[in-house]
Design goal:
It is built from eight helices and eleven strands. About 25% of the residues are buried. Helix content is about 45%, strand content about 20%. The protein is of the alpha+beta class. The chain is elongated. The strands form three sheets. The chain has a four-stranded antiparallel beta sheet. It has two domains: about 130 residues, Jelly Rolls; about 80 residues, Arc Repressor Mutant, subunit A (Orthogonal Bundle), CATH 1.10.10.10.
């Protein structure tokens, strides 16, 4: 297996020699599907880069209910909060499939940020995006019913995939338990809402994809309840 950070978006400003130095300073590890990579409240401080596979950022309620924050693809990074402020981890991260992870000590990450303003700016934009996303999610959880939260989550995924603002194709088909974990509801509620959207002709379930046939109509449904 060739270990490379070439596809890590946060580090794209580094030249080949600089990237080679960072790669040598990383520790590398492969995780299997469903294996935990970092644990919430642990005291590790490394920033971690996803060089192969996908991971999920989650928390767990006192009753053990999983709450999903985001899924990260190859080229992403995580663990930057603890690497920046030195406090315990704010969430757990698990592998969704076999993944290859590069872990860079926080001290060396600080050096990179201080020496490369472009990377510092990219990191700031990433953190600003996290704040905006969290604010929207808090508002949705506080003001929307479960049905509307499912609509909003489906719209968010669809808008990231649409090419014409009219339709979107989501592959693979969203797993009901995953959607339920993101919007704090049950799988049964997600199934009921998806069936209702299908009856209205807004979505169509195909063999290996969920097609959003009327993206504008879905967006209107979400904006109506948000009051936008």
């Amino acid at each position: 297996m060739s270990d490379s950070l070439r596809d890590i978006r946060l580090l794209s400003e580094l030249d080949n020699d600089e990237l080679a130095v960072v790669q040598r300073n990383c520790s590398w590890k492969t995780y299997g599907a469903n294996e935990q990579i970092i644990d919430q409240y642990s005291n590790s401080r490394d920033i971690l880069f996803v060089t192969m596979g996908r991971v999920r950022v989650v928390n767990y309620s006192m009753s053990g209910r999983e709450i999903t924050f985001s899924d990260l693809e190859m080229g992403s990074h995580f663990g930057e909060l603890a690497a920046i402020d030195g406090l315990p981890r704010s969430a757990s991260v698990m592998a969704l499939e076999e993944v290859r992870i590069a872990a860079l000590p926080s001290e060396q990450f600080h050096e990179i940020v201080l020496e490369h303003p472009a990377i510092a700016l990219k990191l700031m934009k990433h953190l600003a995006h996290l704040v905006r996303t969290s604010t929207t999610r808090i508002m949705d959880l506080s003001t929307l019913g479960a049905n509307n939260r499912i609509h909003a989550d489906l719209l968010r995924v669809a808008k990231a995939l649409t090419e014409d603002d009219m339709t979107a194709v989501i592959k693979p088909i969203p797993v009901h338990s995953d959607v339920a974990s993101r919007v704090s509801t049950t799988r049964e509620t997600v199934a009921r809402v998806m069936n209702d959207l299908a009856r209205k002709g807004i979505v169509e379930r195909q063999k290996d994809a969920l097609v959003i046939k009327e993206l504008e109509r879905l967006e209107d449904m979400v904006e109506d309840v948000r009051g936008e």
